[in-house]
Each structure stands twice: as structure tokens, then as C-alpha cells.
Amino acid sequence: MVMPYVLGGILFFFFLEKFIIWRNCTDEECDVHAAAGPIVLVGDAFHNFIDGIVIAAGFLTGFSVGFAAAIAIIAHEIPQETGDFGILLHGGFSKKKAFIYNSLSSITTIPAAIISYFVLGSISFIVPYALAISAASFLYIALSDLTPELHQKWGLKQTIKQLVLILAGVLIMIVIFTLMGHNH
């Protein structure tokens, strides 16, 4: 059963985002803002590497799953890469340099997909879990965009309150599934 991995992934991304927001500054002249360009490039390269793993896992599951994963990732990457390009320009990169570096960080998807196809093919029991965690990341993005208050209230007290409400929702779903039963 992979659903606990989806839920665990959503909670992981919740805490990851909270961790990043806690370390975010509001002073435009701080070191974090000065280093935004390189940070975006490294983060994007890692993110695109993970996208390659997801695409490979999808195709190992079936052509239609792989194709759907690839289309979803492409649709998600277009606005993200446009935003990254803007951050690089704002960080002092020339248009040409921003385009080249952004393209280089994006291309990590291809070797990751090729390598992952063969690696995951030999340890195929991991594929459903990789897809579950990937689904969790997309679900978390959608959920956090639908509830922007998660981004506006980021103190420890608010985080605990948000976590309690999330866990209450999970508990309600467990009770419903237990009492009503569920079919696959």
C-alpha cells in the first residue's frame, strides 16, 4: 500500500517548506537575496534531476503513466523555468547568461531519466513508492497554493496549529475508511 507514502510525502514537503520559510529574510540587502541566482540554479538542477527519476518510474509502470508524468512535468516546468529566468535576471545575470545557466540546470532531467530507467528497472519494487512521493510533491504544491495562509503564517505556534489540523483531517479519513470500508 503506497498511500501512507503519499501522506508522508505531503507532510515532508509541509515541514520542508516551513523550514525554508523560517530561514527566509525580508531584508532586500541580505546575503540570501544576493545569492538567489546560484541557489536557484542548484535547487532547480536537483529538482529537474528528481523529475527525470519520476518520468523513468512512470514509464516503467506503463507507457500511459510515463507519458502522463512527462506531460505533467513539462506543464509544471514551463512557468517554473520562466520564473527562474526572472530571478536570475533580477540577480544580475545577463539575458544570455541567465538563459544558458537556466538551460544547463534544466538538462539534468535527461541523464536522470536515462540512468533511473535502468536502475529502477532492476529494483522495480521501489517504483510505486517513488511515484507516491512524486504525487505527494505535486499534491502539496496544489494544496499549498489553494491554502495560501500556510505561507503567510509561519511561526512555531502557527505551524503546530496547522499540523494538528492536517493530522485531524488524516484521522477523520482513517475513521471513515475503517467504519465504511473501502474498495480498491
Describe the structure.
The radius of gyration is 19 Å and the shape is flat. The protein has a domain at 29-137. Helix 4 packs antiparallel against helix 5 (95-106). The chain is an all-alpha fold. The protein has helices at 3-22, 31-34, 36-61, 63-90, 95-106, 109-122, 127-146, 149-152, 156-180. It contains nine helices and no strands. The N and C termini lie close together (11 Å).
Secondary-structure map with pairings?
Elements: H1 3-22, H2 31-34, H3 36-61, H4 63-90, H5 95-106, H6 109-122, H7 127-146, H8 149-152, H9 156-180
Helix pairs in contact: 1-7, 3-4, 3-5, 3-6, 3-7, 4-5
Which descriptors apply to this entry?
184 residues; mainly alpha
Taken in chain order, the helices and strands follow as: HHHHHHHHH
SS elements, strand count: 0
Number of helices: 9
How much of the sequence lies in strands comes to under 5%
Shape, per Cα inertia axes: flat
| Helix percent band | over 70%
CA-atom Rg in angstroms = 19 Å
Q: Which stretches are poorly predicted, pLDDT < 50 over at least 5 residues?
A: none
**Largest sheet, described in full?**
none
What's the N-to-C terminus distance?
A: 11 Å
Q: Which quaternary structure do these chains form?
A: single chain
- Overall structural class, as computed from helix and strand content, comes to mainly alpha
Whole-number mean pLDDT: 81
